[in-house]
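Protein Entry — a single chain follows
Next Lines — sequence and tokenised fold
***
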Amino acid sequence: MDIKGQLAAGALKLIGQLPLKWSRRLGGFTGHCAVATRANSLRVSRINLAHCYPEMQEKAREQLARQSVVNTAMTGFEVASLWRQSWSLAEDSIERIRNQQLLTEGVSEGRGVLVLAPHIGNWEIFGQYLATVGPTTSLYAPPKIEALDSLIRAGREKTGANLVPTNVRGVRALLKALKAGGIVGVLPDQEPDLSGGEFAPFFGHPTLTMTLAYNLIQRTGCKVVFGFAKRLEQGFELVLLPAEEAIYSEEAKVSLAALNRGVEACIAEAPEQYQWEYKRFRRAPEGRTGLYKKN
């Protein structure tokens, strides 16, 4: 028996019984503890923020790093409630949706819509929302803790999303969904394998950027929209932003640069809610950067 897995699943189920506001508060408390104990997430966030905002005063960067760690912890606890509770309860927490027509117009036209959703705010409720607008397909990698797989799947599929594996078969499913006029959700700000990415500017630094979105655009002629769920005091604001025209360029470097600028535009909306603890700059064109190496 996987005792660790069973304990993790039990904890998720227990937290999932809490109302969203209480799971958020518990996450906030956990985040403040991480800040107080100088957790590694705070160290990495500081490095990333110094890398991306060198002109920002150190005091402001430190405050942003701390806020980010707290917000990321909030997300971790919120998702337990969002996975376990009904969509009607989750939907009640959505206070407003900005630029919803960017998504609905593409769906109504029968044109596939590629939604690029960076790790800002709560991406889980944003994914659940997408599937209520139209047929939605997203990549899914099973968690390392096997006991959590069925819980996560149930939470992400509750509004009708189709989860496909992160392999060639899954990419084919994404292509098929877009060609059929459906919605495809992709997280654009994760570092891919070298075989699945090219370097493009991100906050002024050449950063290994996934080519999946570029390939999907070129092969389907889909519409591209950026989106995320911004955390408000009581609930969420779902934000949809248009992509630059350059993202449709046949030249990969032009398209990937536009993709990263789109991510930057999303981050600018709520920089304190971005997951700065992710080691986004591990590679440079010349090799490993050593940016996150402990002294």
